[in-house]
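Pilot study result, target chain (57 residues):
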Amino acid sequence: MADLIVFRCPQTGMNVQTHLERQQRQEGRSFASFACPACTRLHFIDLASGQPMSRER
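Predicted structure:
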């Protein structure tokens, strides 16, 4: 079952919603690509936390 994930687009600062399957385990980080409707760019979402990939990671 997919969860509704809300994150802030790093390009526009807008809140964006998407349905992605969350992962419960944090053993290895797993990211899913997502075409952002706010900026039309591709973002990578951490499936464990629901947050977009940042430069720090």
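One observation from the pilot: The longest strand covers residues 3-8. A full batch analysis is planned for the follow-on phase.
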